[in-house]
Design a protein that fits this description.
Layout lengths: L1 H10 L3 H8 L3 H9 L7 E2 L5 E2 L2 H15 L4 H11 L4 H42 L22 E4 L5 E5 L6
Antiparallel strand pairs: 1-2, 3-4
Helix pairs in contact: 4-5, 5-6
Length: 170
């Protein structure tokens, strides 16, 4: 144990220590390694991963990018600009990415507001519909149609989880 302990202290942190220092799970560190965002570390003779301070800074950079809502592809591009040293170029590139993220959020909020208004309209139609034991063929009594335009409802990671559409009867 003595030589392994010295090796660990001299060359860096074990994966659990790195994960704890950055505030992520060990599985997250391994995930970023598999994705190529974090290089594979040196290993002790016993096979333990040993991470350098550069690896810790890189992992911290990745985690902060994710917390800003950036995709792994965007973080990868940003890492190539940063490379541990290019702060001003990284700031400029990150600012552009954040502008795009803000626009994406504003678009998503507008879509959700339109969808919310459509849901209120459907609720109003349900309240106004006469009670009946038998559904009408057009189903307006129990399943009214939603608004007159299509709204893509997207998941927070940008994948579409459904599209609500209505064709106009006019």
């Amino acid at each position: 144990m003595g030589s392994w302990f010295i090796l660990t202290r001299m060359n860096g942190k074990r994966i659990s220590q790195l994960a704890q220092a950055v505030g992520v799970a060990v599985s997250t560190v391994r995930f970023y390694e598999r994705k190529g965002l974090l290089s594979s570390p040196q290993r002790t003779p016993g096979g333990y991963r040993i991470y350098t301070s550069e690896s810790e800074a890189r992992l911290r950079f990745i985690v902060r990018g994710k917390r800003l809502g950036l995709s792994l592809d965007a973080i990868s591009d940003l890492l190539s600009v940063w490379d541990g040293t290019n702060c001003s170029q990284t700031q400029a590139h990150l600012s552009e990415l954040l502008d795009a993220k803000q626009l994406e959020i504003e678009t998503h909020i507008a879509e959700l507001k339109r969808f919310s208004a459509q849901l209120r309209d459907v609720q109003w139609q349900l309240i106004q519909a006469p009670e009946s034991e038998i559904c009408s063929p057009d189903l307006d009594c129990c399943a009214p149609e939603i608004g007159s335009f299509a709204v893509a409802v997207t998941h927070t990671r940008g994948r579409s989880i459904g599209v609500i559409e209505r064709t106009s009867h006019e």
